[in-house]
Amino acid sequence: AVVSTQSTGAGMLALLESPHYPYLLVNFYYSSERNEKLDATWDRLATLYMDNDNIVIAKVDCEAELRLCVRYQVPDKAYPQLLLFDKLNNVNHVCKKRGEYELAAYIDSFIEGREQPLKQEL
Q1: Bridge partners of 107?
Q2: I need a surface site. Which of 26, 67, 87, 89 has the fewest CB within 10 A?
Q3: What is the 3-state secondary structure (H, E, C) of the chain?
C-alpha cells in the first residue's frame, strides 16, 4: 500500500478517487494542537500496514490544508479527527479509537470483512 505520513490536499483527493485502495484512514489534525502519543501510534500503524494493498494510512495538517478539512467537516482546533473512508460502500466512518491495538482491530474489521462498525455518513 502507499502509506503517506503527510498528505497535501491534492494528494489526499487523488487517494480518495483512486480505485486501487478500498480503505483510507486519515488523521486530520492541527499542527498547533499536535498529540505526540497519537503521532507515535500513527507512525506504528503506518509501518504495520505498509505492505497491505487494501488500506492507506495518512495524516493531514488542517492548518496547511484548511479547505480539505472544511470539506470533511473537521472541527476547528479539535482533538484530532480520525476518519475511515470506506470506498467500497461510499461512506465515511468517524473513528473514536485512539490506542494502537484498538485502531488495528478497527482497521482489520474492515479489511477482513468481519463485523462492521456502525456507519456514520458525513
Answers
A1: none
A2: 67
A3: CCCCCCCCHHHHHHHHHCCCCCEEEEEEECHHHCCHHHHHHHHHHHHHCCCCCCEEEEEEECCCCHHHHHHCCCCCCCCCEEEEEECCCCEEEEECCCCHHHHHHHHHHHHCCCCCCCCCCC
52-87 per-position pLDDT tens digit: 888 888 888 888 888 888 888 887 776 788 888 888
The predicted pLDDT at position 24 comes to 85
Residue 112 reports pLDDT greater than 60:
yes
| φ/ψ of residue 64, rounded to 5 | -90, -30
CA 1/CA 117 separation, integer angstroms? 23
As a whole number of angstroms, the distance between CA 83 and CA 29 comes to 11
